[in-house]
Amino acid sequence: MTTTEIDTTELGEKIVKVLKTIFDPEIPVDIYELGLIYDVFVNEDYEVKILMTLTTPNCPVAETLPVEVEDKVKTIKFVKDAEVEITFDPPWTQDLMSEEAKLELGML
């Protein structure tokens, strides 16, 4: 690996850091801790695919949140492209939230 390359695992960690800067506008917790991110895929060409959900199918940010996620991930050095796929299978529930998110929201 040359100095101009990056390990896909390391890139995945950088992506997670960026995802933790994006917040659901109705809940003061980032989308990663909320459990909205189901998976992050990075291929050898540094193209990123993010499988995520929303708290509800008629979430007010259904149009803007995926675009914000794509745009922010594309700003990461080495990322060639980013695509967000929205799924509601399985549907989001509060069980998907991290302990940190539950604590933040006074649920623990």
Automatic annotation (TrEMBL):
**Mind telling me which residue stretches traverse the membrane in this protein?**
none
Q: Which residues form the MIP18 family-like domain?
A: 13-86
Q: What is this protein called?
A: FeS assembly SUF system protein
Species: Ulvibacter antarcticus
